[in-house]
Design a protein that fits this description.
- It contains 20 helices and no strands.
- With 408 residues, it is mainly alpha-helical.
- The chain has one domain.
- Helices cover 74% and strands 0% of the residues.
Length: 408
Amino acid sequence: MPSFVLAVFALCYIGMALGRLPGFKVDRTGIAMIAAVVLVAAGAEPLERLADAVHFPTLLLLGGLMIVSARFGAAGIYEAASAWIARQAGRPIRLLAFTVAIGGSMSAFLVNDIVVFAMTPLLCAGIARRGLDPRPFLFALAAASNAGSAATLSGNPQNILIGQAGGLDFWAYLAVAAPPAALALAVSFGAVALVWREALARLPAAAPAVRPPVDRGQATLCGIALVALLALFATPMPREIAALLVAAVLVVSRTLSSRMFFEEIDWPLLILFAALFVVNDALAATGLADRAVAWLAAEGVLPDRAAMLAPVALVLSNTIGNVPAVVMILKLWPGIAEGTLVGLAVLSTLAGNLFLVGSLANLIVAERAASAGVRLTFRDHAKAGVPLTLVSMAAAVAWLVAAGQMRL
């Protein structure tokens, strides 16, 4: 049975690396679900262990934050932010700066995948009206969403998982992660501005200013809810309960159907998490992972130092994806030190900017842009993605070592 489990595990993560099941329209979520079902059906993962294998607090926190983010969208906040950014197109370099600043700051406190999902088509439409090439701005949005989300434990799915699994303090993490995240935002702006300087030098066409309506009452309620959520994160209340409590309050509305908010939940992402929890638990139960970790520790090659963790995060994030990579690492490497967890959160997130396949946020931007008639290629992304990732990760490693979080 251990050999069977190892084979299923390997095939699952090969599928994560490929992104799809060759010859079929089965994506990463479908691959993970199939692997989990096969392991349960074969008895390698008993039914009675499923409740312990799936980390429900992480799923609840992520679902709660998705509802909070959906409420922001319903209030027109994403649409207003995108339209305001597009109105800065009279000076393309200024437009780029605002895209990075707003995309990064919103992604720090709301799940970045949802932020880019909402803003990408709106930004495409606004920039198209001005006759500008939307690609540098969309790449900047993706890079900024990754960089900004690295600052908090609520900014992206992998950080949510790391924070929950390690019991990390929200505000203590922010104090450590905010500086490298802010630097990564600046590097993202600089790299895109340099690589796409010719496109950014073009003069925009005149276009009527579009000012989408914003429900000020709803927007105010969302702002209060976000402040309340962050305040609750500073209390002993479990973060998943805090997120669900705020989400429950926001669902109550006289004008908006609660079903609308539930439809905005990224169910495939939650299923991906749950399925990977099962796959990794089955492998952990064989004892193979424990022996592998013990061997790595004995050989002195366990990635518990910044100089070793950075390339591991870079490779895994751009092959199997940063979310599957973090799920695997946390399950197969028990007892990770708090400083290493902080480093894993920062570095695995920043590593997602290297290639187009490095993070879910990048893929969402590409897919949403394609539906708006804008094609983002792997090569175009890499032109700015490679330098900005290497520089921002090197700076993050230096900061983590200087802050005493990790050894070099």
